[in-house]
Specification:
One of its GO terms (biological process) is pantothenate catabolic process. The protein has about 400 residues and is an alpha/beta fold. The chain has 14 helices and 19 strands. It binds cytidine-5'-triphosphate.
Length: about 400
């Protein structure tokens, strides 16, 4: 049977983007029932929702009363996703009001509920909204952080509805059965590859695409975590709900990761960090001159993972064991297990996800295979599969270590 999804639509201009979300669901074999609010219908009419979903649409509890829609729709759903979730709608949901079909549905649903908020920054940041979001999260709902960008009118800021494709991915993960076992946890994920400038146009870089780190961030959001994603030169759309900090070099990545790690429960270093950087960055473009080129001298970059491990070791001695779990990644071409074990010990992390590089694995591909080594316990082999699956297993192992 097709998974049954209720798409709740709040009364905000971003309602038009929910049409795209609806298409993503219907085209991938989901049975979708759209439940808009009265105000949502002012932005996008009933006919659009009915045509796209192939089902009758109403905002009221008074239509088709004999089918008891105010109870039946919520009870039979496998997932309720509300996009856009307005400040008013989340306030009503948080307080248990039941003054339209959607809020009735939210009260009767016993399946996972995802809210994708969209509103002006001031409304999002208002203590009333923040308190309502906290209440909804406490009750197990996943409230995705809004994106930052252009809002209605001339304003820009936090409050934009995340990309429908990204909301869809979260919902798909939630439907796959991921639980909210990271709810209330703060996690930091680094992704991509650093670039070390030689001059204003050239750099030393690496092949990391950021796909694995983004999959980790997305999966953590779907499991309820508050995610900071430190992205080094990644050309992928922001995962819905993650706070994205963009960096270029290893030095910038270190600063961003250490700042976010201060109050984090988990840090996952999936980024490929350059071990060296040019001693000198030329202020102007290096010109081709006659004769031999000037050599480029390199200096060592700080080892961020090792620093995190060492800081935690010291904090533990003082009774402040943060972050609770530190995960490293390692790409190895040979002697994978022996090199991995030595690296795990050297870096002081709890888990090390070791990839074998080569044979079309790891860089830029949607698939990955790995062995996860633990500071204590047996290695876990992850067979070749989508990076999202690997991310799920890593979070399972992390969740098992959180007290
Ligand atoms: N890492 C880091 N800071 C660095 C280099 C690496 O935090 N300057 C992190 C990476 O994000 C990854 C882990 O360390 O999680 C292992 O990276 P890798 O490049 O395999 O390790 P290296 O210490 O550079 O070892 P190698 O000599 O094999 O390159």
């Amino acid at each position: 049977m097709k998974p049954r999804v209720v798409l709740g639509v709040g009364g905000g201009i971003a309602a038009y983007k929910a049409c795209e979300l609806l298409r993503l669901f219907t085209e991938s074999g989901h049975d979708v029932r759209v439940v808009p609010t009265r105000d949502a219908l002012k932005f996008v009419g009933e006919a659009t929702w009915a045509a796209l979903s192939g089902k009758a649409v109403s905002a009221e509890v008074w239509d088709a009363v004999e089918e008891v829609p105010h109870v039946r729709i919520g009870k039979s759903a496998d997932l309720v996703v509300v996009a856009p979730a307005t400040a008013d709608l989340m306030a009503r949901a948080a307080h248990g009001l039941a003054n339209d079909l959607l809020t009735n549905t939210l009260l009767t649903a016993r399946c996972p509920v995802v809210f994708a908020p969209a509103m002006h920054t001031e409304m999002w940041e208002h203590p009333a909204t923040q308190a309502n979001v906290a209440t909804l999260r406490e009750r197990g709902a996943i409230v995705v952080e809004p994106a930052v960008g252009r809002l209605t009118g001339v304003d820009t800021g936090k409050g934009r509805l995340p990309d429908p494709e990204e909301i869809f991915r979260i919902c798909r993960d939630v439907l796959k059965g991921s639980t909210a076992d990271l709810a209330g946890r703060r996690v930091v994920v680094s992704a991509g590859g650093t670039r070390e400038a030689i001059d204003p146009v050239r750099f030393i870089g690496n092949r990391s695409s950021g796909l694995q780190g983004y999959a980790l961030a997305r999966t953590a959001v779907a499991r309820g975590a508050e995610v900071t994603l430190v992205a080094a030169n990644v050309g992928l759309p922001d995962p819905a709900g993650a706070r994205v900090v963009r960096v270029e070099s290893a030095i910038q990545l270190r600063e961003a990761v250490l700042a976010a790690a201060e109050d984090a429960d988990v840090v996952v270093m999936a980024a490929a960090v350059a071990d060296f950087r040019p001693v000198r960055q030329q202020a102007t473009k290096i010109k081709k001159t006659p004769g031999e080129p000037e050599p480029i001298y390199l200096t060592k970059n700080p080892d961020i993972l090792a620093e995190l491990g060492e800081t935690r070791r010291k904090q533990r001695e003082q009774g402040q064991p943060y972050p609770e779990v530190i995960v490293g990644f390692a790409a190895e071409t040979d002697d994978v297990l022996a090199n991995g074990r030595a690296k795990l010990a050297r870096k002081g992390c709890d888990l090390l996800v070791v990839n074998q590089v080569g044979e079309n694995l790891a860089f830029g591909t949607p698939d990955n295979a790995a062995i996860v080594l633990a500071a204590d316990g047996d290695p876990v082999e992850i067979p070749r599969g989508p990076k999202e699956d690997l991310a799920g297993i890593v979070w399972d192992l992390v969740a098992g270590r959180l007290v």
